Amino acid sequence: MRPSAQIVVARAARTFTPLLALFALTLVTARAPGEGVGLIAALAFALALALHALVFGAAAFMAAFPPLVMRWILALGLIATLAAAGAPEWIYAPMAMEAGLFASSAAGASLIVAVLFGRAAALGDVEG
Fold it and tell me: What is the pTM of this model?
């Protein structure tokens, strides 16, 4: 497909991807912890990641979300979740658990999208 044929889709993705990410971050910060909102926000963030990868391709996705950075975010999210689960008396434990769940789920979704879009021949950056 010619690059000029996708101008409307690219403009829409440039508009809605930051809005989806902002929606996910708003969910994490505004909702009460303990309701599983970290996972729901991570799914909304994964939708923004998938939209970005579908429209702009695997190379642009890997440049915007480097796998090494996403692995570090995944590790920090798991550490925060496990620390909050290990210290339930801590006053910030529910908030740390939700934030850790959001970080680990969003980073995991980023790594999955990178693998799927980077490996599949039909979803690559092939211009035909």
Answer: 0.79
Distance between CA atoms of 74 and 88, rounded to whole angstroms? Answer: 21
CA proximity to 107, closest of 13, 34, 24, 36: 24
The pair phi, psi for residue 86, each rounded to 5°, is -80, -20
The residue range of the domain holding 81 is 3-119
Distance, CA of 56 to CA of 21 (rounded, Å): 16
Looking at the structure of the chain, the number of domains it has is 1
Beta-carbon count within 10 A of 127 CB: 8
Asked, for residue 65, whether it belongs to a domain, the answer is yes
Mind giving me the DSSP string for 69-95? HHHHHHHHHHHHHHHHHH-TTSTTHHH
Q: pLDDT tens digit string along 49-106? A: 888 888 888 888 888 888 889 999 999 999 999 999 898 888 888 888 999 999 999 9
Does 93 reside within a domain?
yes
The length of the chain, given as a count of residues: 128
Position 128 in a domain? no
